[in-house]
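Known limitations

Structure tokens in this collection are predictions and should be treated as such. Users comparing against experimental data should check residue numbering before alignment. To illustrate the layout, the record for NYN domain-containing protein is reproduced below. The input appears on top and the generated tokens appear beneath it.
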Amino acid sequence: MEEQCYALLIDAENVSAKYIKPVLTELSKYGVITYKRIYGDWTSTQLSGWKEQLLSNSITPIQQFSYTQGKNATDSAMIIDAMDILYTNDVDGFCIVSSDSDFTRLVSRLRESGKTVIGMGENKTPEPFRKACDKFTILENLMDEQEPGAGKARVQHERLSIGKIEDAVIDMIIENQDSNKGTGLGEVGSRLVSLYPDFDVRSYGYNMLSKFLEQFPRIQLVKHGHIVTVTLKEDQRRKADIDNYVVSLVKKAGKNGIELSTLGNRVYDKYKDFKISDYGYAQFNQYVKSLDHVKVEQDGTILNAKYHRLSGDRRQ
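Generated tokens:
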């Protein structure tokens, strides 16, 4: 797959220079940074911290004088440059680094043109700008990766949205169940970002989505090989009941076993809404093979399930 190209545009007047290394590292995860520009009034002493970072990180400074008191000329310069870059059509996306909501309309316009927009800003960044982006990253989280304890927004952010996130995941699982589909870990991650562009497991002290989801009391992660499925915990308790029922049927069938088709009919008769896809399986025989004490053997064109005592199992 060809690497994506991004234009990095930084509002120096609304973002601290201490974030530049984490910003570059984070954006490099998405693709190649082909434009690196930073905007501000470089005659102002307020931007002295940024000046030291420009040469070492190959960032092009764009001078914009503040012609009118109280008006942010930097915003206009960034917007004009962003549109110029858009019309060249030589980037796949933009990264707008600012804690200012004035760029909300710009982000929407870029996305309307089919470009991916990654926003980065401090936790104070207004909600409209966050929601306008495809993905929004809180800069304090990036700092916290390099300097544990440096992030200031974690507790507040967690209290505000963790309940909504759990509810959203449960809605995804139920929606997929209605369509007879399982819910993969990757799907949960991508859909959460679509719903909440500023969603980031680092806001909650985790570096992996799977570890973050394990804290929720109403959901459970089930691993089958390299595939991780997200399910409701009540589904797993129900699955244990079904597992025991299947094993009991196979055991009662004796040494000749029971045909898989007959076994399936018995299970579906007892559990009317049983769906093997809810537990990460595509076929009934795969599910049966996963059970302890059960072996699936082929006799001609017929598959039979037979009871099998495990090594060291003394139970009759």
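For this record: The longest helix spans residues 154-178. The chain has a mean pLDDT of 84. Please report discrepancies through the issue tracker.
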